[in-house]
Amino acid sequence: MLKEHGGTPVELVDRQLLKDYLQSLDDLNYTTHNRHQAIISALFNFAVDSGYIQSNPASRLSPRKPERERGEHKTDEIIRYLTPSQLDILYTNVKKSNARLETIVRLLHRSGARIGELLSLELAHINMEQRKFQVVGKGNKQR
Fold first, then answer.
1. Among residues 47, 70, 93, which one ends one of the domains?
2. Could you give phi then psi for residue 131, rounded to 5 degrees?
């Protein structure tokens, strides 16, 4: 936004300018787009609180909705699981590939670990006797 409108005085930024700018962010995923919008709104809230402007032009702008054509979805949609026959087909096909791929697919399915967590897993992290392993996940959380 600074690149396009950085020279515009804050009191001249209006709702239409913000709508046009946000609409130009069509290459972003909807969650990233909405984060940009939230940051802009927070900055204008700060400008209102500091007395630079009377009202926030970004207030009550509707967040962008996910677009199914782009593969975007909300997390409250129905989660579809593989059926037992689909799992059999999956396991049969990965068994033909190689042992590493088969192990990764089985661990992903049975543990719920993320792919990045499994790929960073080392043999030293696996307790073979207890059949357990620990990974460092998102936010440096141990899981």
1. 70
2. 55, 45
Q: Report how many domains make up the chain.
A: 2
Strand partners, 126: 133
Residue 48 three-state SS = helix
For residue 77, being part of any structural domain is answered with no
Put residue 131 in one of left, alpha, beta given phi > 0 → left and psi -120 to 50 → alpha: left
Calculate the CA 30 to chain-centre distance.
9
Q: Which helix (H) or strand (E) segment is 42 a member of?
A: helix 30-49
Q: Verify that 6 and 65 share a domain, yes or no.
A: yes
User: DSSP string covering 15-33, please?
Assistant: HHHHHHHHHT-TTS-HHHH
Q: What's the pLDDT tens digit per position in 112-134? A: 888 888 888 888 888 899 988 88
- Report residue 12 as tokens: 């001249």
